Structures are given as C-alpha cells and as structure tokens.
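Minutes, project check-in
Item: structure for the 240-residue chain
Input as provided by the requester:
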Amino acid sequence: MHLSNAASMTARILEGFVSSFEIIIVEDGSTDGTDVIAARLAANYDYVEHLHSDVRQGFGNAVMRGFRAASGDVLCFIDVDLATDMAHLQELIEYVGLEGYDFSIGSRMMPRSNAKRPFSRVVLSKCFNFLVRTFLRSKLYDHQCGFKAFKREPPFELLDLVEDEHWFWDTEFLVYAQLGGYSVKEFPVVWRHSGVTRVKVLRDSVVMGYGIFRLWWRLFVSPIFGHKRFLWLHRLFESS
C-alpha cells in the first residue's frame, strides 16, 4: 500500500476512538523514494513525524527508535503495507489501554485467524513458531506479525536483554516478556499478503533455526556451561 494511503487510513481510524495520537514513520535507509513521501507527510500533518536513516539499521533498531520518539502511553508498531486488517486497530490498542495488558499482538496462526499467504511462508511460519514454543517456552502462536501494541514502560525495561537487531527482534522480545512475567494478549486477525514474496526456503530456514538456537543457548545452556557463543557461527549468519 502506498505510504500516503497507509498514513491517512491509520489516522482516520484512530480519530474514531482516541482523543490524541501520533504517527511516526521510521524510514530505514530506503532507496525507492519513500523518504520523500514520508518527509512530505510530516510537513503537511502535525500528527506525523518522519525519522530518517541514511543506512539500514535493522528492524529492531527501527522499532526502538520509533518508541523512543513516541510520547504516548500506548505504543504500537504496524507494518506499513497494512497487511493486517485495520479494523483490528481499536482492539489492538484497547487490550493495552483499557484492559491493562502489557502487550497485545495480532496473530495469523490462531484457530480463528484468517490469513492468506503464499504456501512457502505458511510452512516456514508454522515450523518457526512451533520451534519457538518448544525450545524457548513461549505460549504464543505467532511471534512475527507486524501488528503489536505495548504499554510504554515494558519495551524499555526489556531493551538491554534483547540482542537481535533484525528480523528476530520481536520474537526475542516476546520470549523475554513472557519469561519476565509480563501479560501478553494474543488475538486472531484477518491478514492478507501484499507484494511478491521474498522467501528463500533453504536460506530462511537456516537463518530462522540459528536465531532460535542462539537464544536457546543463551537462556538455557549458557547459565549451566558458561558463555561460549560459537562466534564463528554468529559471524557467518550476521554477514549473510
């Protein structure tokens, strides 16, 4: 979805049930003109702020940069393609703002979810989330849907624990949140894939497996046997 349409749609929905809000566009080293569109939106609308980076800092860094710039009591991040049906936005925010959960997350994997995705993504996602639940003791169905809300304090309380700066960031974040006793509300959403899939089954399977292994080692093995980190393996995947 075009960035301008995404921002205006989000604003229209928010105006229906909250008294004040801000939309922060974290544009992470884009090369397709997104920076120009984001800057124009920020200039035209008081509720839009544009955070630009000349180089890619990674998904996790981008999310935390947006959180640091935000001033509200409820913080959300939403993928700009709006793959999750925005009819769920009020539900997402009210689980935190009204019902008192520390986190709320949309899920494409719950029994009542309605998600249309390429087959390769479905297989990878099911395997990934099963392994996260099995080895990292998570109780969630879906760790990577780009539709999440937080109370203001918990992200900063967990920040120093989370090491991954890229695609595994929100999985690691949610694992630490559950281990730390924070309340997480997961709810089913309608979700539609937009654009051409970039999944490469072999590469992504290995990278996903390594992310899970690295966190499992740090949480459950390192405390027993010391802090050996398999540095050569870490460097291999960080450079891929």
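Outcome recorded: The radius of gyration is 18 Å.
No further action items on this chain.
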